[in-house]
Amino acid sequence: MLGDHALAQPATNLSAEDIAHNINVRDEGDRVSRSLAMVKVSRRGSQQEREAMSFRANDDQGARRSLIVYTAPRSIRGTAFMTHDSAAANDSDRRWLFLPSRGSSMRIPDAERGKYFLGTGFSYEDIKSELKFSARDYRFELADPPRGSDPGLLGLRAIPKTDQIARELGYSALHAAVDPESWMPVLIQFEDRNGQDLKTVALRQFEQIDGIWTILEIEVDHHQKNHITTFEYRDVSYDTGPHHSDFVPENMEDSLDWQPR
Amino acid sequence: MTWVKATVALCAGLLASAPGQAGENHLVPVEVGVHVEAAAGIPSDRSDFAEVTLVPVWEGDVSASINYRLSARVRFEGSDRLAPGQPDLSGYSYAGRPLAIGDTGVIELRDAYADFALGDVDLRLGKQQIVWGKLYGFKILDAINPQSFRRFILEDFDKSRVGLWSVSARTPLGAVGLPDWRAQLVFAPDATVHELPTSTALFALQAPRFRFGAPPGTGEEEPLAIELQDGALENAVYGGRVSGMVSGLDLAFVIISGLDPEPLPKLQMRETGAELIRTHERRTLYGVSAAGSFGRTVIRFESGYSPDRAVVTRGVDGMPSFRKEGRLATALALDVSGPFDTLMSVQVLEDHVLGDITDAVRPRSDTLVSAFLRRDFADERIGTSLQLLAADDLSDFVLRTRVSYEFDDTSEVSLNADIFSGDQNDIFGQFDDRDFLSVSWSRVF
Fold first, then answer.
1. CB contact under 8 A, B335 and A245
2. Three-state secondary-structure class, residue A19
3. CB A93 within 8 A of CB A50
């Protein structure tokens, strides 16, 4: 059921670090391509819809590279966001944004990972990390699962290791309910830097595709900005799409032509 | 206008024959952008104008491996002030020239290219824009395509950059042990140069440095005739770029050889006497750019060296001429993620002529500064920005403010103010009496 989770351990008597480790070594496939439908609804009822393609490739050392390119609406079609997630502990991740009106990719400050991704409730880091919590950024504590979680889920609390990291992420802590079968955090409550409720991420639908636990629908309720963003993934295809070396800034202008292959 | 007929026929054939999805009508654009703008001069009517722009776009697949993009732009100006009378389109090559519709309208092909791959080489063939620089608002290595100055430098570069008929080939360098590097070659046999406003236009260039040294209000009647060398290859642009990443830095090395799009003076002997015309000389540009992130700051660097770039001179006889000298332009930029979700960007550019140019119509060194501040509100529906472009000791500048509101994903309204200050002999001060406030509305269908 758990695919290639060679390092996964039984859910009983696990330390917080074990749970975080099992989340982080969750099999995600070497490559994936998928389409993405985003809907943002404000408390006042206004609704924004976006469509995108999402690609990711990992190299042999586990360094991840990903790209999201908007396909609709027309006003933002071709806008692309690329990340290089370094596998080296002393190396920071890298990010680029491509705006069709500018015609070339722009480097984004590494420390801007806590900023919101193009108006959604997800931060750049949320988008990149895909519900994994880097041991470079967090120390972990066991905790009861957040109130309202299904019984049988494991509770995990993650706290940024330094003030600098907390500033970059925009969080002072997160509190997750983790499914011990898939090692998916199915509910995550984030606190802002003052310890106030910031947002809640809920995994609405996930299932195994090609033996890999796969997010199909995820929702973020931003309590301070008063809007809810839903990401719905479709046409998920593993081991297809661009290769690791295709994820370079110079290729972003053509990313609308990227296809699963 | 044979080329227009040929292009229309080619495009119509391409669109009609494209085997896209069932029920898809390729003759109907996938997008039509509409932009309406009305501007009022501050405080006089010196800068009043109004303009409507339509931008239809066609995109699709000819086959599984060939994509195409066609876009046109149709502009109608209400007041005929940006280009009074018939627009001067003499800077465009025959194949790239827009079509004037009376005195106030222009229709042009913006993009017309196809993308396909030959092995590991990605090819783009057709009329296109190629952007190599890392700067915003200034250009050093963004030197493949010429630019339209009908609104000086106030238009976004993607709108003012002039597409060239060209071939661009890009390939990864993994086979030679550089997995994150790419090489790109460009060949553009299209002798289009900058589109410059005529002497009666709203943004007519007044500063002597842009008019072969003639003081404001004097000089030859414009537009001056253009003379180029014969032959497409003699006037073509050749370019190469190698770009990649090293230790967290984005690096690019560039070589461009082509027609300098800036005009040079030439005295042509006629039966009626000497006549001043415009000409263009080739120049070579070697450049490097780098960008890296350091915490909350991105540092960008760009430098270009031309060993043979022409400088306009004016001798003691008062006659304009030109001489080739070395030229080095270098820029350093900082982008900082500021407090309250602001984006701050500062750029400093130094453009230096190497060699003795005491008779030149421009100073030996130009220092240009730009500062940009942006903040969005209400879930990014409201955008506010402030931009300062200044020269020398900051006494010569244009201050640009913009407030925009997005009604939805398809329409936006904005209020813009552009305030110039400085001496009429200066880069920005030449428009000191042409401040304006404009309202624009854009919609994508």
1. no
2. helix
3. no
The answer to whether B250 contacts A251, with C-beta atoms less than 8 Å apart, is no
Q: Do B409 and A91 touch (CB under 8 A)?
A: no
Residue A222 dihedral angles phi and psi, to the nearest 5°: -90, 110
Angle at B287 between CA B281 and CA B291, to 5 degrees: 145
* B366-392 exposure pattern, b = at least 16 Cβ within 10 A, e = fewer: bebbbbbbbbbeebebebebebbbbbb
* Per-residue DSSP letter, A169: H
| Farthest CA pair distance, chain B | 71
Residue A32 has pLDDT above 70, yes or no: yes
| CB atoms closer than 10 angstroms to residue A92 | 18
Query: For all residues of chain A together, what is the average pLDDT?
Result: 87
pTM here? 0.86
| Whole-number average pLDDT of chain B | 89
Q: Which of B24 and A228 is assigned the larger pLDDT?
A: A228
Residues of chain B in contact with residue A94, where contact means CB-CB under 8 angstroms, are: 245, 248, 293
Residue B380 to residue A76, Cβ atoms within 8 A: no
CA A127 to each of CA A34, A118, A130, A180: distance values in angstroms, whole numbers, following the listed order: 14, 11, 6, 22
Question: Can you tell me the distance from the alpha carbon of A212 to that of A3, in angstroms, rounded to the nearest whole number?
Answer: 6
**To probe the interface with A, which of B246, B251, B379 has the most A CB atoms within 10 Å?**
B379
Closest CA to B281 of B252, B302, B313, B312: B312
- Residue A241 has a pLDDT of 85
Q: Are A121 and A220 in contact (CB under 8 A)?
A: yes
Where chain B has pLDDT below 50, the residues are: 1-8, 10, 18-23
Q: What are phi and psi of A112, to 5 degrees?
A: -90, 20
Contacts of B200 (CB under 8 A, 6+ apart): B84, B85
Contact indicator for B75, B105 with CB cutoff of 8 Å = yes
Q: Which residues contact B272 (CB under 8 A, 6 or more apart)?
A: none
Instruction: List CB contacts of B47: < 8 A, sequence separation 6 or more.
Output: B39, B40, B41, B202, B434, B435, B436
Chain B residues with CB under 8 Å of A257 CB are 67, 115
Residue B81's nearest CA partner among B49, B127, B129 is B49
What is the C-alpha separation between B431 and B423, in angstroms, rounded?
A: 9
Confidence of residue A219 (pLDDT cuts 50, 70, 90): very high
SS3 breakdown of chain A: % helix, strand, coil, rounded to 5?
15, 45, 40
The encoded tokens of residue A219 equal 């929702």
Interface test mutation site (partner A, options B110, B293, B414, B441, max chain A beta carbons within 10 A): B293
The ipTM estimated for the assembled molecules is 0.85
DSSP B218-254: -S--SSPPEE--SSTTTT-EEEEEEEEEETTEEEEEE
For residue B106, what pLDDT is reported? 94
